[in-house]
Amino acid sequence: MPGGEIAINTFHFGGIDRDAVITTSQSRVLAYYTALKNILSTQWSLTRLTWRLVGPNNPPLEHTPSPAIVGTQTANPLPNDVALVVSWKTALAGKSYRGRTYIGGLTQNALGTASDGSCALIAASGTTIDTAVGSLAPLTGENKLVVYSPTLGEANVVIGATRGNRFDTQRRRENRLAEIRTVIPFV
Is there a contact between 111 and 133 (Cβ–Cβ < 8 Å)? Predict the structure, then answer.
């Protein structure tokens, strides 16, 4: 991230076999960021991975990728709070049952020439983003990506995801412009 900023995306995973969940979730998150690196700034890098397993007495897990995963786009980076948003869906409705992940570290190449604020990157790299997201949440196997609600103390399996065609920020989660949401197929 420009200026040495640290961005955090929190992913939760659940499953019965703790060791299998640790191995599977680590490889899924690394695959996610490896797929995204070709659309991220060279000033962006993944140097440490911290994630949590859902359940009692599960301290944060850490992994240091070697070598670090580094973005490949050389254009000027966008501000740190500009991101594309992936929305996670579970089988239940309500704000405690959905989540979102921000894809930051983008460059000015993502702006394109659209005057309506839509992201050229989506058209050019939609498949890259879909592949990355799909690697996090395959529907097969026991160990699953979940949306965790600390308020309810519940973890619900992610069954789908969508991405918009406009930039968003954590300060303004839904912009006022009409947005086209695309369903992301899981692998």
Answer: no
- DSSP letter assigned to residue 179: -
> For 94-121, what is each residue's pLDDT tens digit?
777 888 888 888 888 777 665 555 666 6
**Residue 88: is it exposed, middle or buried by C-beta count within 10 angstroms (0-12/13-18/19+)?**
buried
Its pTM stands at 0.79
Which residue do the tokens 């604020």 mark?
A: 117
- Between the alpha carbon of residue 159 and those of residues 2, 98, 137, the distances in Å are 34, 10, 8
For residues 90 and 159, is the Cβ–Cβ distance under 8 A?
Answer: yes
**What is the C-alpha separation between 186 and 88, in angstroms, rounded?**
12
Positive/negative CA dihedral, 105, 148, 183, 174 = negative
Q: Which sequence spans correspond to the domains of the chain?
A: 2-184
> H-helix or E-strand containing 85?
strand 84-90
| Torsion angle defined by CA atoms of residues 12, 16, 18 and 22, in that order, rounded to the nearest 10 degrees | -40
Provide the 3-class DSSP secondary structure of residue 28: helix
Q: Hey, what long-range contacts does 19-24 have (CB within 8 A, 24 or more apart)?
A: 20/142, 20/143, 21/53, 21/143, 22/53, 22/61, 24/141, 24/143
From the list 132, 131, 159, the residue with the least C-alpha distance to 145 is 159
